[in-house]
Specification:
Blueprint: H1 3-17, E1 33-37, H2 44-60, E2 64-68, H3 75-82, E3 90-95, H4 96-105, H5 112-115, E4 116-123, E5 128-132, H6 140-149, E6 152-156, H7 162-174, E7 178-182, H8 186-194, E8 200-203, H9 207-211, E9 215-220, E10 248-253, H10 258-272, H11 275-283, E11 291-292, H12 293-313
Parallel strand pairs: 1-2, 1-3, 6-7, 6-8
Antiparallel strand pairs: 3-10, 4-10, 4-11, 5-8, 5-9
């Protein structure tokens, strides 16, 4: 056997003993992807996540399974996904509450900024400041002026939630006597303002009631105007300093390969930008609000800071 042949044979044997190389990321995805929804089935986050997943399957060439993991205001699911393998096959469809509201109030067992990498934001319900149609308050200025001369009650979906913290910030900034009345969910807060049991409410599902003339919309908490009501101001347009945007986005565990993240962001953004998805979301009474992964990361960071300051002011 010649030296060259012996060397070639040794090289072949040595290569055979090496561990198999990891598959190139260019073949991602090569098996089904799971998106965890941190709430029960049937809610708007669940429904919209299932729709964006179904439409993205055609782009990515793999099935996308949506799995509901409700509990603890969404924080249970966030902890589980934070601990998942960062391989692009386990994602989470998250909202404001488990991303920055609840983490601003207590230790939730994860750090949204360090344990996740945002992929994109595709929605985020507007939260309206509404009063009964017969209310003397015609504008947000009227409501605040009224609350400076006497207590004004407002209902939200629960104590220390995003809407409560947002209006607590307004009360501090203006000196208004805005008295919070927590309810078990936004539907009950809406029923309370319709029945005249509270002077106002901060709720997401207000569009049809306002258009039917049962409620009057005074303002929106978010940083952008509700396109269904272009004449209604945001908090900043009403002369206040704060903005409280809502998010509905998709994130991956920290450490996920950038090439995978880029592929997912491109696919989900293509879906979210499509006319078909926008029509679906309109029928669901939900806006399409697209932010890149980097923009979503900044929004989460900014809101974590803002809500921590408000919670501190409230003695939490």
């Amino acid at each position: 056997m010649t030296f060259t042949r012996r060397a070639s044979l040794a090289l072949m044997v040595g290569m055979a003993l090496l561990p198999a190389a990891a598959p190139a990321q260019t073949d991602y995805p090569n098996r089904p992807i799971k998106i965890v929804v941190p709430y029960g089935a049937g809610g708007t986050t669940d429904i919209s996540a299932r729709q964006i997943a179904t439409m993205a399957e055609k782009i990515l060439g793999q099935s996308i399974v949506v799995e509901n993991q409700p509990g603890a205001s969404g924080t249970n699911a966030m902890r589980a996904v934070a601990a998942a393998e960062p391989d692009g096959y386990t994602l989470i469809a998250t909202t404001s509450s488990p991303s920055f509201v609840t983490p601003a109030l207590r230790n939730v067992g994860y750090n949204t900024l360090e344990d996740f990498t945002p992929i994109l934001n595709y929605s985020g319900p507007y939260h309206g400041i509404v009063v009964p149609a017969a209310s003397p308050f015609q504008t947000l200025d009227d409501l605040i002026a009224g609350a400076k001369s006497g207590a004004v009650t407002y209902g939200t979906a629960g104590a220390m939630g995003g809407a409560h913290l947002a209006f607590a910030s307004v009360a501090k900034e203006t000196g208004a006597k805005l008295q919070h009345v927590p309810f078990d969910g936004a539907a009950k807060a809406t029923a309370a303002v319709l029945g005249g049991h509270v002077n106002a409410a901060l709720v997401p599902a207000y569009r049809d009631l306002v258009k039917d003339g049962q409620l009057r919309l005074l303002g929106v908490l978010d940083g952008t105007k509700d396109p269904d009501f272009p004449d209604v101001p945001t908090l900043k347009e009403a002369g206040l300093g704060a903005e409280f945007p809502s998010i509905v986005g998709i994130m991956a565990p920290d450490g996920t390969d950038p090439a995978i993240l880029a592929k997912l962001e491109a696919a989900f953004t293509e879906v979210a930008s499509s006319d078909a998805f926008r029509t679906f979301m309109t029928d669901l009474s939900q806006p399409v609000r697209i932010m890149s992964g980097k923009e979503l990361a900044k929004t989460i960071a900014d809101n974590l800071t803002a809500y921590r300051e408000i919670a501190k002011d409230l003695g939490n």
